[in-house]
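One-letter codes give the sequence; the fold follows as tokens. An example follows:
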Amino acid sequence: MKPVVGIVVSNKMQKSVVVAVDRLFHHKVYNRYVKRTSKFMAHDEADACNIGDRVRLDPSRPLSRHKHWVVAEILRRAKMYVPPSATASSENDTKAQQSGAATK
């Protein structure tokens, strides 16, 4: 088997991730290209993958009932939303209170 590239859709397990791999094939009857998605469970030894990461999987020996792949490398990290820190929001609240007191 050859390596595949996909997107991590779940990382809720310890040292395991679920990766969705898309493939295109030509449908002879409809004469269109059709997209199909396969989900593979893969071993992530370092627990480094997050949801949305683009990863390359290499085949391996069966590691469990469903795991036959290993995460070889993380090709692109997902852009994660980082909420503003608590100190920044508390500073904004005090500024708003001061400006509200100044207008009264």
